[in-house]
Amino acid sequence: MKRAIGYLSLSAAVFLIAMLFMYIGFISPARNGAESPFIRMIICTLLCIVIISFSTRYIHLITGLAGLDSAHLNLGFTIAIVLALFTEYVSFGNTTLEPYYTDLADKYKNGAGEYFYTYFKYIFMGGQALIAVRTFIHSAVLGLIKTIIKHC
Question: In whole angstroms, what is the distance from residue 143 CA to residue 56 CA?
Answer without folding.
Answer: 17
